[in-house]
Design a protein that fits this description.
The complex is a heterodimer of chains A (325) and B (372). By secondary structure, chain A is an alpha/beta fold. Chain A folds into two domains: 182 residues, Thiamin diphosphate (ThDP)-binding fold, Pyr/PP domains (Rossmann fold, 3-Layer(aba) Sandwich), CATH 3.40.50; 128 residues, Rossmann fold. Chain A has twelve helices and 14 strands. In chain A, β10, α8 and β11 form a beta-alpha-beta unit. The termini of chain A are far apart. With 372 residues, chain B is α/β, with parallel strands linked by helices. Chain B folds into two domains: 290 residues, 3-Layer(aba) Sandwich (Rossmann fold); 37 residues. Helix content of chain B is 44%, strand content 8%. The longest helix of chain B is centred in the N-terminal third of the chain and has 26 residues. The relative contact order of chain B is 0.16. Classes of the chains: A alpha/beta (325), B alpha/beta (372). Chains A and B meet through α3, α4 and α5 of A and α6, α7 and α13 of B.
Chain lengths: 325, 372
């Protein structure tokens, strides 16, 4: 057991995968001597060398495109996209090449590529450094998408992701990089990668969140408890595919659901959850499924980002509206 | 006010310039070159001629099968046989090729059955061959993407102690893509064992070379820090010599080379294209005089190396290959509806398991097991 930040937990997880499998490579901008702008790859180049921890030229399509070739050759590249808003130069390689290669090859070519993306707002950053682009990737068949919300999941999920034979986009909640927790780093992973987690049990309503919004949801549930409301919080963890049985079992029981995410609501992962719940659980619902999300604007200047991002009060407002419906 | 479409400064399409490496003239005359000597046995020369004829026949059949409604599309390589055979035969076991969608000739050299290629054009697969078996990757249709894959693969060779090299194919149009230029940067700074093989066939669908570049393409390499060479792409001997040298250079750790194979796309971009809308037939006629097969035939005949029996025998083999292609094409089976879910993921997906079950139940509701 060790007390570590989420960033350090990722670092330790990556270190362990590199120790266990010589085919694992880390590649990206500033991942070497600097250790990444968030220090997630801190010390890895020193210990594993420049051939396995590769400072790449500054071109995201090149990072992903060469990772495809390395994977065809038998390596397991872990690519860092420095910030969420920088992934789009690589979008074509991810969507047209990475996602489809196994399908097109009739299963002959596996691409066990991990694409790490720090995402979301809340750190007062300049534009292109606070976005939540996960829905684009969830919409793309052939990709899998996961995100962690806490140091323990960060430590284990990154290892499970790298070990997976499919390409996985791994979203890291950058505003939670500095959150600390005790993490058990020995033994085996406490749960499968594709399982959603009941982060807090409850009976009156289900809050569904992922990544950076899990903490907000948990805080809201704690505040609601003081008013006698019993809120269940689900941390999705896997965004594509979603672990529907866990989500549906909860909402079937509580009859009420509020979905929380930083990303804009329109045609998004929160749309998908809401659509699925009404499709499968229409007759169990006591209230409309509500969403608390970023607005459908570009991510705003940082001085007003707290007005854009879902927070405790906006979540509680939705909880009240649902319970009163 | 500046002219928004400045005049071209490149050589006209039919003229390559004195830097062109050539070992066999369009008239079938054998030349020597100070940097690119080649010494082939008669059997090796016969084999190259045979390859050229076979590759053209694959193309002819692909075109005909499309016109007959058996394929939905075909990208013709006619005119580029020497570029592809020269490059394909320079590859050794351990070398890996990443093609565009037009490298039927390289596929042939790498031992991929042409019928397998037809699966893509008939719509029964999206490639589906095992790239590792022939060291020949799937076709790539998005322009230029494969050059990065090839470069990554070459970086893999550097890391696992392999002794091969990697070759990326692309065209003059692709030279404008960001991915191609990024691949040049990566290969250069990592000194990757790469050969960039550009078939400059003068046309990117309807856009001529001067819309892609204001300098000869091979000269682009200099700006990235590695050598570039322009070779007569209709001269199989020169292409073989130049590509062998570049691959050897890559294998011995001296880094990438850009080869510009100067050639011409004699046919349309694909069977859906109409080149009469954008180019002059006089240009095509001029390039017919530089035909890659004819010059090899003249050379073999005039030098007394081959006689009519040999040429007749090769034609017979081409006829047999054509029969194989036609029969194989017609025998390709349509995939089953449920196969659309196969191989989306290596480790499966709960979402697709659910969808497959839904489709299966839906289909089972029909008396014949299908609604078609």
């Amino acid at each position: 057991m060790a007390t570590v930040t989420l960033a350090k937990a990722l670092n330790e997880g990556l270190r362990k995968t590199m120790e266990n499998d010589p085919k694992v490579l880390v590649m990206g901008e500033d991942v070497g001597a600097l250790g990444g702008v968030f220090r997630v790859t801190d010390g890895l180049q020193k210990d594993f060398g420049e051939d396995r921890v590769i400072d790449t030229p500054l071109a995201e399509s090149g990072i992903i495109g060469t990772a495809v070739g390395l994977a065809i050759r038998g390596f397991r590249p872990v690519c860092e996209i420095q910030f969420d808003g920088f992934v789009f130069p690589a979008f074509d390689q991810i969507v047209s090449q990475v996602a489809k290669m196994h399908y097109r090859s009739g299963g002959h070519v596996k691409l066990p590529i991990t694409i790490r993306i720090p995402y979301g707002g809340g750190i007062g950053a300049v534009e292109h450094h606070s976005e939540s682009p996960e829905s684009y990737f969830c919409h793309t068949p052939g990709l899998k998408v996961v995100t962690c919300s806490n140091p323990a999941d960060a430590y284990w999920m990154i290892q499970q992701t790298v070990a997976n034979d499919d390409p996985v986009v791994f979203f890291e909640p950058k505003r939670r990089y500095w959150d600390k927790a005790d993490v058990e780093m020995t033994g085996t992973a406490p749960m499968p990668l594709w399982k959603a987690r009941v982060a807090r049990p409850g009976n009156d309503l289900t809050l569904i969140a992922y990544g950076p919004m899990v903490k907000v949801a948990l805080d809201a549930a704690a505040a609601a408890a003081e008013e006698g409301k019993s809120i269940e919080v689900i941390d999705l963890r896997a965004l594509s595919p979603i672990d529907w049985p866990v989500v549906e079992d909860s909402v079937r029981r509580t009859g009420r659901a509020v979905v929380v995410a930083e990303a804009p609501s329109y045609a998004s992962l929160t749309s998908e959850v809401a659509a699925r719940l009404q499709e499968k659980l229409f007759y169990s619902l006591e209230a409309p499924v509500l969403r608390v999300t970023g607005y459908n604007t570009p991510f705003p200047p940082s001085r007003v980002e707290e007005d854009y991002l879902p927070d405790l009060d906006r979540v509680l407002d939705a909880v009240d509206r649902s319970l009163e419906a | 006010m500046p002219d928004p479409t400045p005049p071209a400064v490149t050589a006209t399409p039919t003229v390559a310039g004195p830097e062109l490496v050539q070992l066999l003239t369009p008239e079938g005359e054998r030349l020597e070159h100070p940097d690119y000597a080649i010494d082939l046995t008669d059997d090796e020369l016969f084999a190259l001629y045979r390859d050229l004829v076979m590759v053209r026949r694959i193309d002819t059949e692909g075109f005909a099968l499309t016109r007959q409604g058996e394929l939905s599309l075909w990208a013709s390589l006619q005119g580029q046989e020497a570029a592809q055979v020269g490059a394909g035969r320079a590859l050794k076991p351990g070398d890996y090729a990443f093609p565009t969608y037009r490298e039927h000739g390289v596929a042939y050299c790498k031992g991929v059955d042409p019928v397998t290629l037809l699966g893509l054009w008939r719509g029964v697969s999206q490639g589906g061959w095992d790239p590792h078996a022939g060291e020949f990757h799937l076709y790539t249709i998005v322009i230029g993407s494969q050059t990065l894959h090839a470069t990554g693969f070459a970086m893999g060779i550097q890391r696992d102690g392999g002794d091969g090299a990697c070759m990326a194919f692309f065209g003059d149009g692709a030279s404008s893509q960001g991915d191609v230029n990024e691949a040049f940067v990566w290969a250069s700074v990592f000194n990757a064992p790469m050969v960039f093989f550009c078939q400059n066939n003068q046309w990117a669908i309807s856009e001529p070379l001067e819309r892609q570049t204001r300098i000869p393409l091979y000269q682009r390499a200099q700006g990235f820090g590695f050598p570039g060479v322009r070779v007569d792409g209709n001269d199989v001997l020169a292409v073989l010599a130049v590509t062998r040298a570049a691959l050897e250079r890559a294998r011995e750790g001296s880094g990438p080379t850009l080869i510009e194979a100067f050639t011409y796309r004699m046919g349309p971009h694909t069977t859906s294209d109409d080149p009469t809308r954008y180019r002059l037939s006089a240009d095509v006629e001029a390039w017919k005089l530089k035909d890659p097969i004819e010059r090899m035939k003249v050379y073999l005949a005039r030098s007394g190396k081959a006689d009519h029996d040999f040429f007749d025998q090769v034609e017979k083999e081409a006829d047999d290959l054509a029969a194989h292609i036609r029969a194989g094409c017609l025998a390709l089976e349509d995939p089953t509806p449920l196969s659309i879910f196969d191989n989306v993921y290596a480790e499966g997906s709960s979402l697709l398991d659910e969808e497959r079950e839904l489709m299966s139940s839906y289909l089972a509701g029909f008396a014949e097991g299908s609604h078609r």
